[in-house]
Specification:
The chain is mainly α. It is built from 3 helices and no strands. Helices cover 60% and strands 0% of the residues. Residues 85-105 are annotated as: Disordered.
Amino acid sequence: MPGRKLAGAKPYQCVLLGLTDQDVAAHPKIFASAVTSSFNMKCTFEQQSASVEARERFRLKRLSPALRRAKKHWAARSLLANTSHNLRATANKTEKRRALARLKE
């Protein structure tokens, strides 16, 4: 089903990416720092500026040669989108918890 996520999916261990064990260990930290440093966290991945997204995509491809093999940047884009979604969801959950805590006081 399009748009549905698999429970427990590990995007960095996708066979199509051809990442080494070192890449799998390092990529989540690299992608998280790229998203938090450059992206506007109030916007979804699709709403980000094209120039910001392209800059981060090429920076990540320089850091990880395995991402260079993918046609039309699909690997870097999909991992950036996934990381952006996860970080935004975590921030939203944190904000909701804080709002509930303020109401209880």
